Amino acid sequence: MTRRNEILSAVTQVASLPVAAMKVIPMLRDPSADICEVARLINHDPGLAANVLKLANSAGYAARSKVTTIDAALVRLGMRRTMGLVIGSAVAPFEQKPVRGYDLPAGALWRHGVAVAIGTQVLDEMLELHAPEHSFTAGLLVDIGKYVLGHFLEVDGTAIRNKAFNENMPFELAEQSVLGIDHAEVGAALLQHWGLPDELVEVVRWHHRPNQAREEVRLTTDLVHAADQLCTLSGLGVGWDGCNYLPCEAALQRLDLTETRNELALCSIVERLKDADDVFEQPTAEV
């Protein structure tokens, strides 16, 4: 008997996102939302407000004038990019925790998510695909399911690790075999529980099997899958599951990725990671 039902039940017991984020996210998805009301809600969370201002004044949004108010920052960033930042700031405290079942020290899961998010953006720019803006956010959330399994449920990864390595089995399939569910499905269930957008739920759900994603989210899923593979193979924020994941060749072919492009993308990811910590406040909240 597997632990599938127990795990899915436990997902609903995970703490909700901060109140400010839960109020702001639906408004940021509404094209008719009052920008002044959005700014007012963000201002109620000093850490979030600081992150919004940091991003609006970062190198990627270089402008002659520095924005000093949330209203002006929202105009510069746009609602979709701001939503990604809000979600990232809200999820960061969860991903900063050590994940015992996966042998991930504090901050490693967050580091991997940031690397995948940056990688998704790098690949999109390199390949000139013009992917939806939620692609970055999806990369950030890609392995949130590991938090639930390793930290919240304290899943013992020994049996999963042994099955994966002894039987030369991709890690997510070993999770399925032992637990009846994998971290991708658990992550998707958590995002759905939090009421996050369906496109994020779907990309996280299928990031190891992009061929099963709906056509509407296929491009984002392919990009996140490719970025996740690059970051995993390079050791960015990985635990003992390490490189025991198989790339989806069809996804890599759809993106027309070559060894040279992969090398260039990885160099760019590592370079951008150096500046990534300046955008998000270091999370301190206990969850």
Overall outline: globular
Number of helices: 16
CATH homologous superfamily placement of the domain at 4-15 and 94-276: Hypothetical protein af1432
- Please provide the ordered H/E string of secondary-structure elements: HHHHHHHHHHHHHHHH
In terms of quaternary structure, the protein is single chain
Under CATH, the topology of the domain at 4-15 and 94-276 can be stated as: Hypothetical protein af1432
Report the mean per-residue pLDDT as an integer: 88
| Terminal Cα span | 30 Å
Number-wise, the strands total 0
Largest sheet: number of strands, sense, barrel closure: none
What's the CATH C level of the domain at 4-15 and 94-276?
A: Mainly Alpha
Strand content: under 5%
Structural class: mainly alpha
Helix content: 55-70%
Radius of gyration: 18 Å
Which regions have little confidence, pLDDT < 50, spanning 5+ residues?
Answer: 281-287
Descriptive terms for the model:
287 residues, mainly alpha, globular, disordered C terminus
